[in-house]
Amino acid sequence: PELGEIKNRLDFLYSLAKNGSEQQNCNLFRTSYNRLKACYRNKIREAKKEANMLKIKCSENQTKSLWNIVNKSKKVSSGTHRFDNNVFTPDEFNNYFVNVSKEIKQTLTSQNTTHCALDFLVRRDVPETVTCFSFKDVSENDVLNVVKQLSNKSSKDHFGFSNRLVKDTICCYITPLTALINKCLSQGEFPNILKVTKVIPVFKKGKKDQLNNFRPIAIVPVLSKVIEIIISKQLMHYMELNKLICSSQFGFRKGLSTANALIKLVEQILGCFEEKELAAVTFCDLSKAFDCVSHELLVNKLQHYKIEGSALKIFQSYLKNRKQYVVSNNKESSSLDVNCGVPQGSVLGPILFIIMINDLSECVPADVVLYADDTTIINKQPSSSLALAQAKSNQNLIQNWLTANELVLNTNKTVTTFFGLKEKPEQHTENPTFLGLTLDPTLCWHQHIIGLKIKLSRSIYALKRLCGELDQNGIRTAYFGIFQSHITYGLVVWGGASHAEEVFILQKKAIRIIAGAGRLDHCRDIFVRLGILTLPCLYIMQCLLYLRKNEDRIMLRNEIHSYNTRNSHLINLPPHRLSKSEKTLCTLHLDL
Question: Which biological process terms from the Gene Ontology are attached to this UniProt entry (predicted)?
Answer without folding.
Answer: DNA biosynthetic process
